[in-house]
Every structure is written in C-alpha cells, then in structure tokens.
Amino acid sequence: MLDSLFFSVANHTVTVVGTDGSYLKPFERSFIFITTGQTVDVLLEANQSPNHYYMGASVYSTAGIGAYNNSTTTAIVEYNGNCTPSLPPVLPDLPSHSDTGAGLNFTASLRSLADKEHPIDVPMEINTHLFYTLSMNAPCKNRSCPDGKIRTLATVNNISFINPSIDILQAYYCCIHGVYGTNFPDVPEFVFDFTADYYPMDWEIPQLGTKVKMLDYNSTVELVFQGTTLLKGSDHPMHLHGFQFYVVGLGMWNFDKDKDPLMYNLVDPPLQNTIHIPKDGWVAIRFTAKNPGVWYMHCHFDRHMVWGMDMVFIVKDGESPEAKIKKVKLQYISNDSARKASFKKRKKGLMKKASELTTLCGIDAGAIVYSPYDSQPEI
Ligand SMILES: [Cu+2]
C-alpha cells in the first residue's frame, strides 16, 4: 500500500467495466491506472496471435527516482495450443513514472452505467459543503527536530490525526467524553495558494488533534479534496469507510469554486470508495450520509495514514429504527398480533444491547424479561 500503479498486457487492450464494485460504461484502454485500495474490473480478450505476452505493472510516483521502486513487476499470459513463443516475451508499453496526465485521463474516463437497471442517486441539492486540504508537513520549526532527526507528518485541513487510546466508535456509543473533539473544520483555517512553488517554512507546521466532523442523518455532502505542494506535496488515494461516493469532478491546480462546479458530471459520475487526488490537483465527491455510525476516512498510502492524513465522520442517528445505532425502542405495541410476532426479535435486541453495554462500555448491565409467552422470566 505504497504507490499507485500502471498496468498493461503487451499487445492487448483491456475493456474497463467496473470500479470499486460498481459497473461502468465499458471503454477500451491499452493500460489501466489503479491506486491503493481501489479495484478496477477489466475484460481481456485473447485475440492476438498465439504467443507468450508479459503483463506488467509499474509505479506512478511524483517523487524523484530513488524515492520509489523503479522496476516493473511482471507475469506471463500464455496462449494455449501449438506456438513457438517469442523469447523473451513481449513487454507492455507503460506510461512513465511521472505521467500525471495518463493517470488523470484514465480516472476522468470512468462513467457509471446510469441506465434503467443501474440508476444513479447522486445528490443534487447539497446542504453540507466541505473543502479539505491534503498536505505533507514538518512538525519541527525549520524542519529541524531537537534530536536532529527529520520527521514528516501528513494532514487533512492542517490537522494531523492523533489516534486516541479509546476507540472513537466506543466513545461515541458509550458516551465517553474527552476522547475526541467535534470541531473538525469544514474549510482550512488558513487559505493560501495551495499549489504554489514556494512557501514560508512556518506554514509546514501542522496542528495535532483527534477531531471528527458530525453529520446529520441524510445530509447531502459535497467534499472537495485539494492537494497542496507543502513539502513538495504528493498524490493521495483517499478512502472513505461506510459509503460509496460519486466522483463528480476533478482537475489540476487550485479548485475554483465559481467555475469548476459548472463542469461537474452529475449525469453518470462513477460510484467509488477510493479516489486518487493528483499532486497539485483536486477532486470533488458527493454522498448522502444515510449510514449512521462512526466512519474513518484516510489516505490509503500507509505512510501518510500513520503520519496523520486521517479524519472521522460521525453520522448521527435518524428518526426511523433502521437509522439508529444507539437506542433501543421500548414503546408498547398495542396491536396484540404485532406485539406477539415481534416479541422474540425485540427480546434478542434487548439482550444484545445489555451485553454490548457490558463488554463495550464496561457497565454492569442486565435485563430480566417477563412475558405471557414464556413460563419463566429470562435473565
Ligand atoms: Cu496520502
């Protein structure tokens, strides 16, 4: 989980048909671009002359050579039947390690099927606008730490995520205070030219914190990720748990809030859970917060994740029973047959809740259930 990759099969094209578990309008390419945490479904037609062909993958990296593995990983596609294979097999032609345009062009080609059998549900009226910068940071003044070591952190909206000692889900569920703050900012505190060539070094110093963004149930969210060139910047595969989101726009340089939304694809945007934000670029996603709970969002490059490029959404409970994670409904059901029919399920739910309170929250909880349907109360 370190780098994005180009992949190709020599002398063949592939038909791209899906990503992150959702269908796409099929399109042909001589290579695919895939970032960590993503899936891409392709069809390969063995329609070339019987032979042996290399398939290969190479790293896409905006860092200089030496900062990543410059080799090509390979395996061989062999056609069945009688043939005299070329020796060595033909190698695929892959884009260069820094070909940002090749990756961006591939990502921008993804389109949902968006037909009668596969309708899309992209939110059109947005009530929650978020703008998150993604940065590499240096925690010590002038990049020089007291112990002489060079250290790097990574941030979302200039906040480097600190892992709490108690899980945020546990703290939320059990109402344990002091574990996290609910003031994750909707926009960066400090707005500057995010893709400039030079900055004062002081701007590289991040805040540290464990902060979450609270979302009302069924909020319609638009989130723009903006890469910055602090510490020369990097690309970032951003991954959201708990949701699939529509990727409605992407581009290079600073996001323009007046012009760029006019170019959004709201007709057939791809439905994904991981999206590659190019270095010096931006990506806009939309989703409806209809999954109550605690959801982690992070860069899928392992090093960026442990350096703090993470945050958490908490989606509050909604009104209906299906939209709640926290409460047990104890209201009396007046209809006799409905009460009897749902008794077993409700009893099981209550017992599960008592058990969760004990194991998860450390509370000595118990339940005694009397009913006309059992001869003995259940404890
Ligand atoms: Cu990253």
Automatic annotation (TrEMBL):
UniProt-listed Pfam families: Cu-oxidase, Cu-oxidase_2, SRF-TF
Q: Which cofactors?
A: Cu cation
- GO cellular component, as recorded: extracellular region; nucleus
The listed locations are:
Nucleus; Secreted
Report the InterPro entries cross-referenced here. Cu-oxidase_2nd, Cu-oxidase_C, Cu-oxidase_fam, Cu_oxidase_CS, Cu_oxidase_Cu_BS, Cupredoxin, CuRO_3_LCC, TF_MADSbox
In this chain the MADS-box domain maps to 327-379
- Family in the record: Belongs to the multicopper oxidase family.
Q: What is this protein called?
A: MADS-box domain-containing protein
Native organism is Rubroshorea leprosula
